[in-house]
Write a structure and sequence with these properties.
Oxidized Rhodanese, domain 1; 104 residues; 15% strand; globular; alpha/beta; 5-stranded parallel β-sheet
Length: 104
C-alpha cells in the first residue's frame, strides 16, 4: 500500500479542534511558520519519540508540501495510530488559512 489517508486544508480548518497536529519539519523550517497548536518532532526523530504522541484524538501529520508527512503518516498507521496527512502541507495551509506562513 503506497498511499495514506489525507485531509485537506479546508477539512482541517473546519475541524481543527478534533485533531492533534504533528509537524515533522526541521527546526529551521519551523521559523517559516507553523500551524498552532502543534507537536513538533522532526521526521527522523518520530520513531524514537513515538511515546510522546497522544492517542486521544487522530493525528494530522504536516511538513512543507506533504511528502515527508505522508511517510510519517504511513509509519504511524502501521504502529496503530489514527493518522492522516495534510494534503499540500504547510504551504497549502498558508495559502488557505494563514498568510503569515512564509513560502520556501
Amino acid at each position: 500500500m503506497n498511499s495514506c489517508d489525507t485531509i485537506t486544508v479546508e477539512e482541517l480548518s473546519d475541524n481543527k479542534d478534533k485533531y492533534h497536529i504533528l509537524d515533522v519539519r526541521e527546526e529551521w523550517e519551523l521559523q517559516k511558520g507553523t500551524i498552532e497548536p502543534s507537536i513538533k518532532i522532526p521526521m527522523n526523530d518520530v520513531s524514537k519519540r513515538i511515546n510522546e504522541l497522544p492517542t486521544d484524538k487522530p493525528i494530522i501529520v504536516v511538513c512543507r508540501t506533504g511528502a515527508r508527512s505522508a511517510q510519517v503518516t504511513k509509519y504511524l498507521a502501521s504502529q496503530g495510530f489514527s493518522a492522516r496527512n495534510l494534503y499540500g502541507g504547510v504551504l497549502a495551509w498558508g495559502k488557505f488559512a494563514d498568510p503569515n506562513i512564509q513560502s520556501y
